[in-house]
Amino acid sequence: MSIINVDDEFSSYEEVEEKIQQLQDTEKFKLWKRDSRTIAAAIKRMPKRVFNPEVKYNELLYCCVYGGRETKDELRSMRQRCPYQIKFRCTQDGQRLRVVSITPNHNHGPAETSDMDTGGEIKVPDQTAVSPSPSQSEAIENEEEEEEALTSTSSDVNIEDIVDSPMSDQLAMSNASDGFTDLQPLRLVSNMSFKHPKLKIILDVDTGIDDSHAIMLALAHHNVEIVAITCANGNVNVDLVVENTLRVLKACGREDIPVYRGAECSLLGNTSQFENFSGEAWNTPVDTSVVQKEHAANAIIRIINNYPGEVTVVALAPLTNLALAMRLDSTVGRKIKDLYIMGGNVEARGRVSPCAEFNFYNDPEAAQVVLKEFINITILPYEVCRKFLLPWDFFDIWTNAGTPASEFLRRSVLESAKPARVAGREGYRSCDGYCMALVLDRSVVHSAEPVYATVELSGQLTRGQMVVDWDGLLGQPCNALVVKELDVGKIQALFMLMVRPTTLQLQQLGLFSNSVPQCPMQTLWNNTDGPVVPQGCFDSTILFDPNNNSGIVNNASR
Fold first, then answer.
1. Would the pLDDT of 245 be above 90?
2. How far apart are CA 424 and CA 201, in angstroms?
């Protein structure tokens, strides 16, 4: 046992400081508080959440003095890129600070870490000694204000934020989800400049049409690493879920992503399917021998234990696989980075029953387990997805972009979308695609509220309904953040990532040389006139103007 271990809890910030000092004295290395997020800032965004004032911080990150951000000029001369760090996060009830992850290894010798008696001066072999600057600690204490200033974005979406000139510029979104508890928006920046390593994601799916959109969007984002796709019974039976998932990966040229077969039925043994597939994309043959032999629940446990505090789970299916993982290892729910759920409802508006959304209705017991035992939960309810639709004019552009991904979209979605269009619905919705969009860019969310949420298990007409205690009448601490409003314009911009050509596709067409595409965009898309931009769609003139020679951006080679 070390002095500080994962899952250790502290009732005050002073206790944390004492342990950190004890660790430094014992192990003979020095730490610095690289990041902090105060509870005062958290309360501004989550006024209903109650915190113990003694903990002072909602999040803390300590690093070795030889590691941390490269942007800290005061420490640049001594940087060794040491990976050692300890991350603390406030517990769900707001009363304690918990150690959520430890990266325990240094990349330098003992002589370099014996700085305890240097009077604040840090000596590094073969480098100039430097003293920590007062501006460093001041910057750390003002971390919240700094991050808000850096990450503020406009609600207006301009495609120039997505596609830049010259042609060699690339799209990037920094900070792919740093925890969604504070609703901090992410920035759109160019040239693939990322503040953090790639976001590790487990996608738990019952692949139907909108699940495929979520998968394609995650694959298209350069700062996302899909570590696993786990399959569960839901829209269709689990074997067809596996096949559909493989079809999507094949269409995207990403058959290297590991796919795991999971739950065949709910925790109580019930099975039900909802979606009827139509469209030629879902009839193509696939090689199921590539499916991993490990059960999905075991894979979830293994991956989360291998990367504690680093894995974001995006749950787009009934929550059976996650509940099974909890029953096999009761610690995994507290080791995740974040959990995003597309499911549940807040207005008692059902989809397969009068009062219940499909994913929760399919396995209410699993939903109850997950809401009760996982941390850092964000829920995108079904009714919210109903309210925010993608205009049909955007839909036509999205499904007719002329790239392989767009062709797959067209063949997979047109038949299923036709009834809604004929019936006069104002637009198209992709619930699971929306959920992935807010994982990638939190500014997609216009408003959200922390609440206590549970699931009705016994009602004759209400079984599977998500019950939200909006006014705190049950006296329970908040356990989930419920999304209430979305920015459709930003979702449209994100969805266009799905249909961009990859570097490999550009090279195969002879349109990419020395990292610079060599042709106008409409030439690549085999459309001499260029797609027509309808009125009322997001500002996409730079992307779709047939007279624009800026070309297609490079989506880094996969």
1. yes
2. 36
Yes or no: say if 383 and 342 are a contact pair by the CB < 8 Å rule.
Answer: no
pTM above 0.70, yes or no: no
User: What type of residue is 158?
Assistant: N
Q: Cα torsion for 404, 192, 226, 337, to the nearest 10°?
A: -150
CA distances from 354 to 51, 269, 459 (A): 37, 22, 12
DSSP state, residue 279? S
Alpha helices in 399-545 (DSSP H): 404-422, 431-440, 488-495, 503-508, 521-524, 541-544
How far does CA 143 lie from the centroid of its chain? Answer: 22
Per-residue pLDDT tens over the stretch 188-209:
322 333 345 789 999 999 998 8
Identify the CA nearest to 231 among candidates 219, 217, 251, 249: 249
Q: Are 367 and 360 in contact (CB under 8 A)?
A: yes
Cα separation of 432 and 156, whole Å? 23
**Contact criterion met (CB below 8 Å) for 318 and 359:** yes
Angle of helix 209-220 relative to helix 238-251, nearest 10 degrees, comes to 40
The topology under which CATH files domain 159-497 is: Inosine-uridine Nucleoside N-ribohydrolase; Chain A (3.90.245)
Q: Which two tokens stand for residue 124?
A: 């590094």
- 111 pLDDT exceeds 50? no
Confidence band (pLDDT; 50, 70, 90) for 25? confident
What the block records as the tokens of 3 is 């002095």
* Model confidence at 359: pLDDT above 90: yes
User: In the prediction, which pLDDT does 35 show?
Assistant: 76
What are the domain boundaries of the chain?
9-150, 159-497
DSSP letter at 511?
A: -
How is residue 285 written in tokens? 């043959």
User: Do the strands 97-103 and 85-90 form a parallel or antiparallel pair, or are they unpaired?
Assistant: antiparallel
Kindly report, residue by residue over 423-474, the tens digit of the pLDDT: 888 899 999 999 999 999 999 999 999 999 999 999 889 999 999 999 889 9
Residue whose C-alpha is closest to residue 455's, from 468, 470, 442 = 468
DSSP 169: -
Instruction: Name, of 312-321, 499-508, 515-524, 527-536, the range with top average pLDDT.
Output: 312-321
pLDDT in tens, 519-536: 333 333 333 333 332 333
* 301, 260 contact by CB (below 8 A): no
CA distance 469 to 453: 6
Tally the C-alpha atoms within 13 A of residue 337's C-alpha that lie toward its C-beta.
20
Backbone angles phi, psi at 463, to 5 degrees: -55, 130
